[in-house]
Amino acid sequence: MTIVEFDIQLAEADRAGLTFKVAGEIDVATSNRLRTEILRVLLEAGPSATVTLDVADVTFIDSTGLSVLISATKRLRAAGGDLVLRSPGLRMQKVIQLTQLEDFFSLDFGR
Rounded to two decimals, what is the model's pTM? Predict the structure, then answer.
């Protein structure tokens, strides 16, 4: 089994917003990096931006990672923006369902 290092890269920036490709585990060890990147985006693009996280290659997410995503979503929505989770894998979908957050997050199942 190959362990995927956590990585977040800007994949696209256009009038619709910013899209980041996220890979690996979002957990207590990596969530600060994700939080820092999202905060940097908010400072540069403005809090009313739409930020899409392509999470197809996320292999694991824990409560710390979910907390970062929830906080970012609330902050963006309060300013008229949004956080979209694109292509969540089955494991991430299961975590979102178990925590009853499927109606909270903006989910995009397209590829």
Answer: 0.90
